[in-house]
Write a structure and sequence with these properties.
44% of the residues lie in helices and 12% in strands. It has helices spanning 5-19, 26-29, 53-58, 65-76, 102-119, 129-136, 142-145, 167-170, 174-185, 187-196, 223-234; strands at residues 37-38, 44-48, 85-88, 123-127, 150-154, 157-164. It is globular and about 40 Å long. Bound molecules: uracil (URA). Uracil binds at residues 48-52, 55, 61-62, 66, 88, 168.
Length: 238
């Protein structure tokens, strides 16, 4: 489905804003900001950590070795990178690929929330710890939460967060790669489930929190979220 014209225009405006962004010191050392790319109307969005050397040079996400693996993983479930949307927590490269700093994540995160609001994916696949912790609002590490879909509401969008290992980490750790492949193999069932029965929005109204913050994950006691969880469980997604 094509995105609404207004949303396409808004994404274009947002891209230009990101490309000119000076909200944190990373703008001084980056070559190019990396907004993200792919299908603006995709039901599936991937969120990585930050641009690396090649991404910084080209202004495109996941074009290095980790990107090649991500493309292979997508191909294993019959998708191309053009059919999904790929973004990052940080839009500018941290020098020497160091970890993002809290102040950089704070400065950059409104862009990611807005991307999710405009793209309205049904599943957001977070790659690794930084994206998972930011979007879930939960500090539990990726080793514990990978492969477990979590119904959420972000910026008025009801979706499943689906944390998986970061491809860059899996490149050098065969056990992690095997787990990553298993988690990716379960994505089509989750997408089908999410498309057929999107979870109800979490009860917290968006207006009660800063515009760029996600609502807390729906509490387990919430009957609609619970119903979805049960449905996903029935699919063997948990
Ligand atoms: N790693 C990321 O997290 N993002 C990229 O764009 C490339 C590598």
């Amino acid at each position: 489905m094509a995105p609404a014209t207004d949303d396409t225009a808004a994404l274009g405006d947002l891209r230009r804003e990101v490309e000119a962004c000076t909200r944190c010191a990373l703008h001084e050392t980056r070559t190019r900001a990396v907004f993200g790319e792919g299908d603006h109307a995709s039901e599936l969005m991937f969120v990585g950590e930050a641009p690396g050397y090649h991404e910084d040079q080209q202004g495109r996400p996941f074009v290095g070795a980790a990107g090649k693996l991500l493309e292979e993983l997508l191909a294993s479930i019959g998708l191309t990178r053009q059919q999904v949307f790929i973004a990052n927590v940080l839009k500018s490269r941290p020098p020497n690929n160091r970890d993002p700093r809290p102040e950089e994540i704070d400065a950059c995160q409104p862009y990611l929330w807005r991307q999710i609001e405009l793209i309205r994916p049904k599943v957001v696949c977070t790659l690794g710890n930084h994206a998972t912790k930011l979007l879930s609002g939960d500090q539990t590490g990726i080793t514990r939460v990978h492969g477990k879909p979590r119904p959420m509401e972000i910026g008025g969008v009801s979706l499943y967060l689906y944390p998986i290992f970061h491809p860059a980490a899996a490149l050098y750790t065969p056990a992690m790669l095997a787990t990553l492949k298993e988690d990716i193999a379960r994505l089509p069932a989750l997408l089908a489930h999410a498309a057929g029965a999107a979870p109800e929005p979490a009860p917290e109204p968006a207006a009660s929190r800063p515009a760029w913050r996600p609502a807390a994950a729906a509490p387990a006691a919430d009957s609609s979220a619970q119903a979805e969880k049960t449905g996903a469980e029935q699919l063997g997604l948990f």
